[in-house]
Specification:
31% of the residues lie in helices and 14% in strands. By secondary structure, the protein is α+β, with helices and mostly antiparallel strands.
């Protein structure tokens, strides 16, 4: 055996194997610097207490704010959350509902301008049974879509390719957000 074969067979670092790897450096927040939320902590209540950059917040309103999804379905996936810890849409005040709607419209306009998206998936999952990952705190998803965003990765490899780092996306969207 030559040196290459013996290293390959030993399972040394950098040698090919059958493991698929997806590099997601933005998820280091969960394993480094004690930023990982506890099991009972609400990340949507904690986010506004952090810097916009650390929390991926792109805009803050009076009763609600907009942030990027840490686990995006697509590039530029945003969420609109009320500051108040409520779980259901029918618990929101008229002011919160109006601002969630207004922030959603602005997010769509900004995403179109910054990312040239062709459409959106917008929605709320109410309760765990409906698929809410964080059922205890109301949040609305805004997922940009492109005519060409279908590719073989999600179908074959169950992997979504995201072309930009979350910090770069947050910076671009926040910079383009209109300020009153």
């Amino acid at each position: 055996m030559d040196g290459v074969e013996s290293v390959r067979d030993s399972g040394a670092v950098g040698t090919p194997d059958d493991m698929q790897r997806l590099w997601v450096p933005h998820r280091m927040v969960y394993v480094a610097d004690h930023h990982q939320p506890g099991r009972s902590d609400c990340p949507f209540c904690a986010a506004p207490e952090r810097s916009d950059e650390d929390a991926l917040i792109v805009a803050r309103g009076r009763t609600a704010y907009v942030l990027l999804n840490l686990f995006p379905y697509n590039n530029g996936h945003m969420m609109v959350c009320p500051y108040r810890h409520i779980s259901q849409y029918d618990e929101a005040s008229a002011e919160e509902i109006a601002e969630i709607g207004e922030l959603t419209q602005i997010a769509m306009r900004v995403a179109r301008g910054v990312m040239n998206c062709d459409g959106f998936n917008i929605g709320m999952n109410q309760g765990e049974i409906a698929g809410a990952g964080i059922a205890a705190h109301l949040h609305q998803h805004i997922v940009p879509r492109w005519a060409s965003d279908s590719n073989f990765f999600p179908i074959i490899a169950k992997t979504k390719a995201l072309p930009q780092l979350l910090g770069d996306v947050r910076e671009a969207i926040a910079a383009a957000w209109p300020h009153p």
